[in-house]
From TrEMBL:
InterPro entries: THDP-binding, Transketolase_N. PANTHER family: TRANSKETOLASE (PTHR47514:SF2), TRANSKETOLASE N-TERMINAL SECTION-RELATED (PTHR47514). This is Transketolase N-terminal domain-containing protein. Residues 27-262 form the Transketolase N-terminal domain. It comes from the Bacteria. It comes from Bradyrhizobium manausense.
Length: 276
């Protein structure tokens, strides 16, 4: 943490647990070692969401391709993929050697996610607005083929400006896809500034509820709260959305909540002392 940072910023950095900090440090280590730029801010806002999902909810074997009934997770906000890669490495699906190659020519891990089921990456995403439609299609396919997997999809609040999301959401309700969970990373920031200045969506919980989703609304860096929302009994006929109130760049000290580290080259991990 910078010595001149306000006390409230120091407190925000301190509230991250050891494991959450370790994932963030790993992201910075990879970028610093390769001396390449990456989407730091979008990745840091979703670390706790991913840890809860992969620790306790997503049924994913060590060889995903061998289990057709595995759960599916889709990172629709593809610019947060460094967090996904680091968590999948933590779970043993991506090797340290592969992750260390991020940003190099021929690396299997792209700047945005590219489908690789062996690594636990179910869909190519990053063209915003496509992940939720893909997830709805997967959940509906599971229903039709009488398979019993659950589909989780993580979208950004800025990404929800894309109309394809809402068309997909209406379809999910029409078909009663209770095997679908949408998580919203509501960090209030887009690349071009605050989300409310780009296209305001102030009544997001009410909007999802009116469509017909079961709605949970939680602090997005509180793993206990996320866990409880995902454990809440599912409706037999409705899809679910968990709106996670997050901070873009969570853990970046004075840069939290800003777009300064949306996409950035990391000269060294010491550039973010709060995570050391």
């Amino acid at each position: 943490m910078n010595r001149g940072a306000p006390a409230d910023q120091q407190a925000r950095a301190a509230d991250l647990d050891i494991r959450s900090k370790a994932i963030r440090r790993r992201i910075l280590e990879v970028l610093a070692a390769r001396q390449v730029a990456g989407h730091v801010g979008p990745s840091f806002s979703i670390v706790e969401i991913l840890l809860v999902l992969y620790d306790e909810f997503v049924r994913l074997p060590q060889d995903p391709a061998e289990m057709d009934d595995r759960d599916r997770f889709i990172l629709s906000k593809g610019n947060g993929c460094l967090a996904l890669y680091a968590v999948l490495e933590d779970k043993g699906l991506i090797s340290p050697q592969i992750l260390n190659q991020f940003g190099s020519v021929g690396c299997e891990l792209g700047l945005l996610p590219e489908q690789n089921v062996l690594y636990g990456i179910e869909a190519t995403t990053g063209a915003l607005g496509h992940g939720l439609p893909i997830a709805v299609g997967m959940a509906l396919a599971a229903r039709i083929t009488e398979r019993h997997f659950h589909v989780y999809v993580l979208v950004g609040d800025g990404e929800l400006n894309e109309g394809a999301n809402w068309e997909a959401a209406f379809h999910a309700v029409k078909h009663g896809l209770s095997n679908l969970t949408v998580l919203v990373d509501r960090n209030g920031q887009q690349r071009n500034g605050p989300a409310e200045n780009v296209l305001p969506m102030p009544f997001m919980p009410a909007l999802w509820r009116e469509i017909g989703f079961d709605v949970r609304h939680v602090p997005g860096h509180d793993r206990r709260a996320i866990r409880e929302a995902l454990r809440f009994p599912l409706s037999a006929q409705r899809p679910r959305v968990v709106i996670c109130e997050t901070v873009k760049g969570k853990g970046l000290g004075e840069f939290e909540g800003s777009g300064d580290w949306h996409y950035r080259r990391v000269p060294s991990i010491s550039a973010v002392p709060s995570l050391l």
